[in-house]
Amino acid sequence: MPQPGFDLEAAAETIRTWLDEAERVLITAGAGLSAAAGYDYGDEDRFRELFPALHRLGLRSRYLVGVPLPPELWWGYWAVHIDDIRFSPEPNPLYQRLRSLVGDKDHWVMTSNVDALFARGGFDPDRIFTPQGDYGRYQCTTPCTPTTFDSRPLVAQLLAAYDPATGAVTGPLPSCPNCDGEVEINVRIGPEFVDDPYLPSSRRLQDWLVTAADARLLILEFGAGFNTPGVIRWPGENLTRRIPHAGLIRINPTHPETPADLTGRTLSVPAEADQLLDRLTVPHPAPDPTAAS
Ligand SMILES: [Zn+2]
């Protein structure tokens, strides 16, 4: 539920107005959006269902970064996780509703999420910038090359060698097609991250923002907290400062606060994305033709 006392309907009305007035929309999103869409990395029930062997080892959620696991279990985890979150073919209803919300407006997406849910929800892949990488690619850990590789065949191969009872994959572990060394999924975990695949979209987004300098730009930010505020949250605030006609709407159930120096150009919405979209994507009631004018 939204915070007690918060008038979500009034906020939705303001957002409709701001959206109508906007010439361009930049949707920015963090992990909170995918969590609201049903992909909550902290969901312990789903974790137990997908990873029974890891659950028996005492692990409870997908926040596994830093947990030392033998490579057979590590790759078993990645294969199941990525297959679930990145390669499920169905579009996600929440992302589809978000897509319908922006309609024909000139828009871009910038997200720290690496699950490609925006593209699967109908957003133009050429207008999505994912600075933290993509589960759909993998890279050399060294890295010996800036080339990254399609992870779909890798995941399929791993799943074929995966035993749910043990959580492990059998047979040869993934290796770099170039140097035969270790590989990892192409997401920003450490300084070895290869960002080459994301540079072209970064440049296109920067160009779009340069031409937005005099435009009414609306930034719609969903679920970007303080895990990596330098990726989504602070850049959105800085853009709002830099572009005189920009506005920022921050949808976040736990960290909705906005900077004091931007008062008047920001709207803070302490609610989950799905709660807000329930209001925004419900059609307005048609005017009653029998009402006296
Ligand atoms: Zn290599």
Automatic annotation (TrEMBL):
Q: What is this protein called?
A: NAD-dependent protein deacetylase of SIR2 family
The yes or no answer to whether the keyword DNA-binding is present is no
Instruction: Please give the InterPro entries that the UniProt record associates with this protein.
Output: DHS-like_NAD/FAD-binding_dom, Ssirtuin_cat_dom
Which positions carry the signal peptide feature in this UniProt record?
A: none
Query: What Gene3D superfamilies would the database entry show?
Result: TPP-binding domain
The Gene Ontology terms for molecular function here are: metal ion binding
Superkingdom of the organism of origin: Bacteria
Q: Which residues are involved in binding Zn(2+)? A: C140, C144, C176, C179
Which keywords does UniProt give here? Metal-binding, NAD, Zinc
Q: Which residues form the Deacetylase sirtuin-type domain?
A: 1-287
